[in-house]
């Protein structure tokens, strides 16, 4: 593939970002071999640009964990950077699961408030008009790179009002609810589909507007099948896989 086919100087996207995205996709798809260094000389020849965008692209890929540098040998792609989530990970347990896999996982919680949810979510949870739920958004990172954005609505007692720092520290809001009020989840139903990033979602997940995202919608239930909450989690599609199995 020639550089003219790969880069578009008139697109408005900086050349280094175009180069970075091309290399990122090749690393994720396995086209870029983890045994073959990404040398500046080869990339200069391939893309026909100056050293500055090449170095900036490689620098950001290194910061985000897609490549690493070996002293005296060059820059190499990281092998198998995709995150694989088993279906058995409990509600709110993604961050803890990632940490258990040796990954540096963290989260940022924002917009914590009691609000009336949108009509669609009220219907899914069988709620009356005017009923307010605990609402917040959690952005999950792996090695400082955003992986998933979860928008949460929880049916909780009025006295349950954790702060953003408390939710960040706990990693799982339902575990806080169980500890403080004895309310325990019994089951969950999931729906998954492909979607594209809006401008706000693209900014949160560090992808391009219109890029593919993996959406996972979950309705949670407590004992007796009582609706307990709703979550919509959006994941960077190239970096995330949802794995499940069935027994017969």
From TrEMBL:
Residue stretches making up the HTH gntR-type domain: 13-80
Keywords carried by this UniProt record: DNA-binding, Transcription, Transcription regulation
Signal peptide: none
Official protein name in the record: GntR family transcriptional regulator
